[in-house]
Amino acid sequence: MDRSLRERLTELYRRLLRVYGPQNWWPIDPEYHRRHGSDPREEIVIGAILTQNTSWRNAERAIENLKRAGALSLKGVRELPAERLGELVKPAGFFRRKVAYLREVAQKLDPIDVVEKIDREQLFRIRGIGRETADVILLYAGGRPFFVVDSYTKRIVFRTFGVKGGYEELRRWFEGNLPPDVELYREFHALLDEHAKRRCLRNPLCGGCPVEELCGFPSGNP
DNA sequence: CCCCAGGCCGCGC
DNA sequence: GCGCGGCATGGG
């Protein structure tokens, strides 16, 4: 990786942070867990499943339902009948699959401390955890430096730097061009998503874009 | 009516 | 290994 590319990547981060501010990912409710004796990291794992290919708004509705049922925890998920869990999770969409995934995860990530040590490969063996969800769990719940890549991330680095690749390729590209800083990874991923939603849409709004000088689009990259 | 959302699985090739 | 259909609700 050439030096100028690293500098441009770091500069992209600094500018996005300045323009959009800290994004507060992953949102959790510490007070809920204090009162119920659960661990906030459990909420991250549950939220990671619920938001798969689903707007955060809809995932949040399911999370609120779980809260009201006192079931926003791995234990809560395990103890609810599948049918009842399905009703609560329904607003997040794909609810039959997500019920199966949640029950699987609630069983295999118990106790939640396993997120500190578990291998990525072991996470993949859990039904419902693919590459992105694994990295979300490792980064936001486990506090481990795995860079989370999603479709927004792919779009932005392709347009901005002309870098194209599959999931693992792009994850390694980020990790190879940034220091292994958990807080940096957390914030950068969140900022890329925010930028993709506000500006770097399918049809991008390049006029007045805050990172226009760093970006090869539209003059350079597709 | 359409497309999209903080993906993953199982299948065919 | 890659591409594709299915999965489901809510918003624009």
Automatic annotation (TrEMBL):
InterPro entries in the record, alphabetically? DNA_glycosylase, HhH-GPD_domain, HhH_base_excis_C
Keyword annotations from UniProtKB, A to Z: 4Fe-4S, Endonuclease, Hydrolase, Iron, Iron-sulfur, Metal-binding, Nuclease
Xref: SUPFAM superfamilies = DNA-glycosylase (SSF48150)
The Swiss-Prot or TrEMBL record annotates one GO molecular function as: endonuclease activity
Q: Which GO biological process categories is it annotated with?
A: base-excision repair
User: Which parts of the sequence belong to the HhH-GPD domain?
Assistant: 50-198
The record's Pfam families line, in alphabetical order, gives:
HhH-GPD
* Designated name of the protein: Endonuclease III domain-containing protein
